[in-house]
Design brief:
The complex is a heterodimer of chains A (260) and B (166). Chain A has 260 residues and is mainly α. Chain A has 9 helices and no strands. Chain B folds into 2 domains: 75 residues, Fe-S cluster assembly (FSCA) (GMP Synthetase, Chain A, domain 3), CATH 3.30.300; 57 residues, no CATH class. The chains are: A mainly alpha (260), B alpha/beta (166).
Chain lengths: 260, 166
């Protein structure tokens, strides 16, 4: 197995799963501008995922295609952070659902974009030239995602009592999931050793800087976290990913090899 | 430049962006190169935003145009160096303005993420493409497409798109 493929799938699955989640706002945005913004962010993320899947397909060869990777792998084969598959609302029992909560969306996008801005910047120097090229493109895009989610984080946090309370609740709910960023998986370790990947732990201080400055401006309190560290990037997911994949993959699976 | 390379450039010269039909692919910097490879002609295009839905259409347009001109060539997509709005020609920017889209500023030197999100002390003004006023405000980071932001002119009250530096 090429040391790059598992690592590339991790990056690709992150982008695809968050792209799919954000796209749930399409047609349901709190205001028209945000409806459009989230759809555009999704387009960027799904575009990044496609470039990465195409690269994996080339490396794997044979009958692998980007569509096979996106639509015909199951939950346990996905390598995304658990943070990105959670629904757009706070914790509920099991797979119970609630209305979409924009604060959850914004906080999640902010925490992830702050990481990816740093990660793509570092990956521009990857030993894999194709990954470096994808990183250079993605960096340009994630900076706008970060600016967008950061502005809204400040607006919600430093807004009304209601928006502040919801932003803080979203932060309290989601922050523990960021612990997964800093715990290297075997695939990451292999990719780092090969010079393809980047040691995310080395980016933690800069990430803290971006997050703490934004939280201070947003008058939000950084939660202290500990306890269980999720392992989505190793294929151990929450109950939510299966539902997301079912919706995303059902059409391609009902019409395999369909072209439209 | 060989005759076949020249013929391909000439055939593709007038091909415009499907979303912004006043600017050519060459002026946008999407059509990067036409070169003679060992096994025939290669036309090199580069994607703008990773998820730009127009890229498929652009590739089809390039193929169809070459075919109509009777030119056999492969269309190659190249990612590096990444497309930037700095490649847009001055003539192209002027066409955008005339079409009602404020053209992109030069991308800031150094792409440091931290500097990007901390707002510059003096934000660059985006002049209104209709009345030229510098009194404009951003209404949304994302406009009708990912590559544009939505602005509003405080003088003529017109909303307009700003092609973001990328």
């Amino acid at each position: 197995m090429n040391p790059a493929t598992d690592y590339l799938l991790h990056l690709a699955d992150n982008a695809l799963v968050l792209g799919q989640r954000n796209a749930e706002w399409c047609g349901h945005g709190p205001i028209l501008e945000e409806d459009i913004a989230l759809s555009n962010v999704s387009l960027d993320l799904i575009g990044q995922a496609r470039l990465l899947y195409q690269l994996v397909a080339t490396l794997k060869g044979g009958s692998t295609t980007e569509d096979r990777l996106a639509y015909f792998r199951d939950t346990g084969e996905f390598r995304n952070y658990t943070l990105l598959e959670l629904p757009h609302h706070g914790p509920l029992s099991g797979y119970a659902q609630s209305d979409l909560d924009y604060a959850t969306t914004i906080v999640r996008n902010f925490l992830y974009s702050a990481l990816m801005a740093l990660l793509w910047e570092a990956l521009e120097k990857s030993a894999n030239a194709d990954l470096a090229a994808i990183a250079a493109k993605s960096l340009k895009e994630v900076r706008y995602h970060l600016r967008h989610s950061r502005d809204w984080l400040v607006r919600l946090g430093d807004g009304t009592d209601e928006s502040h309370a919801r932003a803080q609740a979203a932060l309290d709910h989601l922050f523990a999931y960021t612990q997964e960023f800093w715990m290297p998986s075997p695939a990451e370790a292999t990719a780092i050793a090969a010079g393809i990947g980047v040691d995310v732990a080395a980016l933690q201080a800069d990430w803290n800087g971006i997050v703490d400055a934004a939280l201070a401006e947003a008058t939000l309190k950084r939660p202290t976290v500990g306890g269980y560290v999720t392992e989505g990037k190793q294929g151990i997911h929450s109950e939510h990913l299966g539902f997301l994949l079912a919706e995303m993959q059902s059409l391609a699976r009902a019409h395999p090899n369909g072209v439209w | 430049m060989s005759a076949s390379v020249e013929a391909a450039w000439a055939a593709l010269e007038e091909l415009t962006d499907p979303e912004i039909p006043v600017i050519s692919l060459r002026e946008l910097g999407i059509l990067r190169d036409v070169r003679a490879a060992t096994d025939g002609l290669e036309v090199v295009i580069t994607p703008t935003y990773s998820g730009c839905p127009a890229m498929g259409q652009i590739e089809d347009d390039v193929r169809a145009t070459l075919q109509r001109a009777g030119i056999a060539a492969r269309v190659v997509t190249q990612l590096a160096p990444a497309w930037t709005t700095d490649w847009m020609s001055e003539a192209g920017k002027e066409k955008l303005r005339a079409y009602g889209i404020a053209p992109p500023h030069q991308t800031p030197a150094g792409s440091s993420v931290v500097r990007f999100i901390s707002k510059p002390a003096k934000a660059e003004t985006v002049p209104c493409p209709r009345c030229g006023s510098a009194r404009t405000v951003e209404s949304s980071h994302f406009g009708s497409t990912a590559c544009k932001a939505l602005y509003k002119c405080l003088d003529c009250q017109e909303p307009f798109d700003y092609f973001k530096p990328y």
